């Protein structure tokens, strides 16, 4: 069965086997260093060596691949209790995945790519709401709603599967019960030596989260591995 036809559960199982077979030592090391270290960082070619199909699927379908990998990490036995929730990050992508800023096109949306550039602007680190806790004003139940973007997303109803009353109602945000992560925005500009003639350098906005923030300053030359958004 090809991975494109596999269920999410199958993908999680494949990553779990991969982590146990090839990455247990790195996972234990990251767990012991938590929270100073919050990520398992793997070389792309280490993944490709052991499972080329899974590595290729990671490039084409990074959202579901990273979700499956991080779900698998939660199932791995770790040497600390409670076990930390580690991020899954990948470095050293294939050269074919390296795209120039002015060469980015719609075909690259949703793909795992690499971009080289010069950091021109760095914002301050700010908290970002990741999982919002709301209290139902009708029954008092506390309902959690995952957040994306900068617009607050309220629950559609007081979800029964979270102990709620199942009705559409009003909610109150409980900041102290919600989960926040650090976030930061940077602007990366084309490297000057890559420009032709009198061309003006183009810029790309990059969003960083959690353990990636606070490590970059203007003037740094970077290679950013990430998923292109529209």
Topology:
Elements: H1 8-22, H2 24-33, E1 39-43, H3 44-50, H4 52-60, H5 62-73, E2 87-91, E3 112-122, E4 126-136, E5 142-146, E6 171-173, E7 179-189, E8 203-209, E9 221-227
Parallel strand pairs: 1-2
Antiparallel strand pairs: 3-7, 3-9, 4-5, 4-6, 4-7, 7-8
Helix pairs in contact: 1-5, 3-4, 4-5
- What overall geometry do the principal axes of the alpha carbons give? globular
Classification by helices and strands: alpha+beta
CATH architecture of the largest domain: 2-Layer Sandwich
Order of helices and strands: HHEHHHEEEEEEEE
The end-to-end span amounts to: 32 Å
Question: How much helical structure, as a percent, in the residues?
Answer: 10-25%
CATH topology of the largest domain: mini-chromosome maintenance (MCM) complex, chain A, domain 1
Beta strand %: 25-35%
Largest sheet: 7 strands, antiparallel
**Class of the largest domain, according to the CATH hierarchy?**
Alpha Beta
List unreliable stretches of 5+ residues.
Answer: none
Assign the CATH superfamily of the largest domain.
mini-chromosome maintenance (MCM) complex, chain A, domain 1
Total separate domains: 3
The mean pLDDT is 95
- Strands, count: 9
Number of separate helices? 5
If you compute it from the alpha carbons, what radius of gyration comes out, rounded to the nearest whole angstrom? 20 Å
